[in-house]
RNA sequence: GUGGUUGUAGCUCAGCUGGUUAGAGCGCUAGAUUGUGGUUCUAGAGGUCGCCGGUUCGAAACCGGUCUUCCACCCCA
């Protein structure tokens, strides 16, 4: 081997045990998506660049992986552009496709393209990888999976309620208790900005506010100042920094503060409805918390904003997020279709579950029973028995070579097979086999006819 | 994209202010043990010291670049 092979930064190989555990999460998520009436779709790994570019802000554009055109692409660039050495002007001429950056924008594109076949309200789920040219960190990769559930074509706040229930159902099912679903509303943020007189600084205001738990009140105020937000406005925002108490108490403070703004009041009403309805219905294990600092940089949220925080003692960014966007398909020419959706960060959920030891034991068991190979004739009988067992769902295989028994047992040990069947010359004559429990070392002799009745408890 | 950090055997890591044949533990292979794994004992295999260049009589070590790892920022799942 001349050089050791490698994989690109921020990507990963998944070993058998990791795939098993990932599938365990996928299966649970998928099961709940389906029980809530969501239907699966899939979209291509890459889209036309114009579909993606400009949808996630400048910062987002930077993180989109672009795909080089095929053929002699440089020959097609005119001399002026070529000699400009300007990446921004050359890039569109040599790259017309880009890797999917998230699942929401492709979904919007899908809805617009298939609007005549879709029955609204349309509830879809989608579990596929996305790619971002980001710098990797813990829980941040350049290739990772998103599991999205979105509803388009309904303005009802019951959708928000249902999505919170869906979060609760999935995380409860995964055994991931103690998560907090943080709630906010874009209209509340807009209302606050309006009331304090920072209405035309809404984005920098929310971005700064979002960092409260990270850089503290002083840090947030400094950042706001540096973005040109008047000091008087920042002073007026003071009540936000000391917002505390129960959800309904916080809601009351917000209601008073925002009563003079139409948008703000509407946001408070919406949030109030969602909270009240959920209180009525009840949740299994998730906590609900109003968090006015929750901004989720995404420009297209217009109503509810969700974020799921891992249990407190786990060091991990958000493990899910979502919100309402009144006009997502507008960018593709279909007006007045409202959507609301949530996303699960599978890779991060995996890391959290691994850290908390929440995967059921034996989930990555790849083999329940191994037949040792004593020779041609014995192996043939073993094969017949294995065929029978497989029909009843037992994961089994016959060791392919008549290697030393010691070696075969060592292999069984490594694979952590709970049971081994020894079938040698003596057993052939007697029409029996020896069943060995690898964990206790105990063996028992059984007639070959009874192989179908074996109970494998692993 | 900005700043820092890391890279030595399959894995986890030693390796002194530069000094000649590159170290350990675990793992791996074989044997002790021709029908019994995990334990034990013995032997063995395995390394262009991330890569490229420079300084030096001499570089795993020092310098520059590059890739990679992890972390902080930006942003985000």
Describe the structure.
- The chain is 41% helix and 17% strand.
- By secondary structure, the protein is α+β, with helices and mostly antiparallel strands.
- It folds into 2 domains: 16-64 and 101-356, Bira Bifunctional Protein, Domain 2 (BirA Bifunctional Protein, domain 2); 369-453, Rossmann fold (3-Layer(aba) Sandwich).
- Strands 1-5-6-11-10-9-7-8 form an 8-stranded mixed β-sheet. It has a 5-stranded mixed β-sheet with strand order 13-12-14-15-16.
- A hairpin with a 5-residue loop joins strand 15 and strand 16 (443-447).
- It binds one RNA strand of 77 nucleotides through residues 3-4, 6, 9, 57, 59-60, 62-63, 102, 130, 132, 134-141, 144-146, 207, 296-298, 317-321, 343-349, 372, 374, 404-414, 420, 422, 424-426, 434, 436, 438, 441, 443.
- It is an enzyme of class 6 (ligase).
- Homodimer.
- One of its GO terms (cellular component) is cytoplasm.
């Amino acid at each position: 081997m001349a050089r050791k092979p490698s994989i690109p930064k921020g990507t990963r190989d998944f070993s058998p045990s990791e795939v098993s555990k990932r599938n365990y999460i996928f299966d649970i998520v998928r099961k709940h998506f389906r029980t809530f009436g969501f239907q699966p779709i899939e979209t291509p790994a890459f889209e036309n660049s114009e579909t993606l570019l400009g949808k996630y802000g400048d910062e987002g554009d930077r993180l989109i992986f672009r795909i080089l055109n095929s053929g002699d692409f440089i020959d097609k660039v005119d001399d002026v552009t070529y000699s400009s050495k300007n990446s921004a002007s050359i890039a569109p001429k040599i790259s017309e496709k880009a890797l999917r950056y998230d699942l929401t924008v492709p979904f919007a594109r899908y809805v617009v393209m298939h609007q005549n076949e879709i029955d609204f309200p349309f509830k879809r789920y989608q579990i596929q990888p996305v790619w971002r040219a980001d710098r990797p960190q813990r829980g941040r990769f350049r290739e990772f999976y998103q599991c999205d559930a979105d509803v388009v074509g309904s303005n009802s706040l019951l959708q928000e309620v249902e999505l919170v229930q869906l979060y609760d159902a999935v995380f409860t099912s995964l055994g991931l208790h103690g998560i907090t679903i943080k709630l906010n509303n874009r209209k509340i943020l807009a209302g606050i900005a309006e009331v304090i007189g920072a209405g035309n600084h809404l984005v920098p205001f929310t971005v700064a506010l979002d960092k409260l738990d990270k850089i503290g009140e002083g840090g947030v105020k400094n950042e706001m100042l540096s973005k040109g937000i008047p000091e008087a406005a920042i002073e007026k925002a003071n009540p936000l920094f000391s917002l505390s108490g129960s959800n309904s108490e916080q809601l009351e403070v917000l209601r008073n503060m925002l009563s003079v703004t139409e948008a703000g009041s509407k946001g408070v009403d919406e949030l109030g409805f969602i909270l009240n309805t959920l209180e009525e219905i009840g949740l299994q294990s998730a906590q609900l918390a109003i968090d006015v600092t929750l901004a989720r940089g995404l420009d297209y949220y217009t109503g509810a904003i969700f974020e799921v925080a891992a249990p407190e003692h786990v060091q991990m960014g958000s493990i899910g997020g979502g919100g309402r966007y009144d006009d997502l398909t507008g960018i593709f020419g279909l007006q007045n279709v409202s959507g609301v959706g949530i996303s699960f960060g599978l890779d991060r959920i995996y890391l959290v579950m691994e850290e908390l030891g929440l995967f059921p034991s034996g989930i990555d068991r790849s083999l329940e029973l191994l037949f040792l190979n004593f020779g041609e004739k014995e192996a043939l009988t073993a094969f017949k028995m294995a065929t029978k067992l497989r029909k009843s769902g037992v994961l089994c295989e016959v060791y392919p070579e008549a290697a030393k028994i010691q070696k075969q047992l060592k292999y069984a040990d490594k694979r952590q097979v709970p049971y081994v069947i020894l079938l040698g010359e003596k057993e052939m004559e007697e029409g029996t086999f020896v069943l060995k429990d690898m964990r206790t070392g105990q063996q028992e002799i059984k007639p070959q006819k009874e192989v179908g009745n074996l109970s494998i408890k692993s």
